[in-house]
Amino acid sequence: MAKAKLNKLDLLEPTLVRAFGLTRLYRNTPLLDEWLSATGELNDFDSTLLNEVQVKLIENADAWNEEELKMSFISIVILLARYQNPIRTYYDRDMSIKIGNNSLMCKADMLLSKGIGEMIETPYFFLHEYKREKKYSGDPIGQMLGGMLISQAKNNNSKPMYGCYVQGRFWFFSILVGTEYVISQPYNSVKIEEAQQVVMILRKMKEIIHTQLMS
User: Which domain holds residue 194?
Assistant: First the structure.
């Protein structure tokens, strides 16, 4: 019997929706609201650091390329989340999986996962950076969703998969549960109160991982 041909899927939102029977929810779910309602305060050091990199973002958001945005701003925001073992932070990792007759491949700009050294064991949170705000080419939602689907399939459990995509100064947060996904309204990180909330949301991810996602 001939093997079924493997279908390599483009990471486009409509393509993934059709291939996997996904449904996008357009109102926040209780799970997303719980995540986004994260509270807390930055200490003086963290507050000063965030203010410094935010000034750079305001001055350079339209000029930075993806690598400059990642190194000059996104990486500092992730640092301020203060992730520690057993949660490991991975950058620029290729991910792939076969789901039925479909093949998915993507690069994780940042991934929170249980792991040993370079080995990614259980992904919890996937971040995709997409620089452009003015000229739209590509599909940042599709890239993020593809990474979340790969992670969901690798984990092979019924637990939610968390994600985020960064489009210039804007941060969007997402949760995938089964075949349903929801995406938040954007957080504009040139506004200090919204940049601070992004840090709180990322810190909340630690609590969610420890209390809800870890086996």
Answer: 7-213
